[in-house]
Amino acid sequence: LTRDTEAMLATAGFRLDEAETMYLPSTPKIAGFVSWGSAVAV
User: Fold this and answer.
1) Where do the structural domains in the chain lie, given as residue ranges?
2) Are 41 and 11 in contact (CB under 8 A)?
3) Would you tell me how many other CB atoms lie within 10 Å of the CB of residue 37?
4) What letter does residue 6 receive in the DSSP assignment?
5) pTM recorded for the entire structure
6) In this structure, what is the dihedral angle of CA atoms 30, 9, 19, 40, given to the nearest 10 degrees?
7) pLDDT tens, residue by residue, 3-15
8) Does residue 1 surpass a pLDDT of 80?
9) 23: β partners
10) Which residues pair with 19 in a beta bridge?
11) Which end of the chain is more exposed for a tag (fewer CB within 10 A), N or C?
12) Contact 22, 34 (CB under 8 A)
């Protein structure tokens, strides 16, 4: 998946407080890419 999740959240009216993305260790790359963080509605 190649969606810009941070831009999508901003377009939906959220302000990102923090965001992080990474590949989980010892997980196949096809299933191990994750994004997490916190956002506040503006």
Assistant:
1) 5-41
2) no
3) 13
4) H
5) 0.65
6) -150
7) 898 899 999 999 9
8) no
9) 33
10) 37
11) N
12) yes
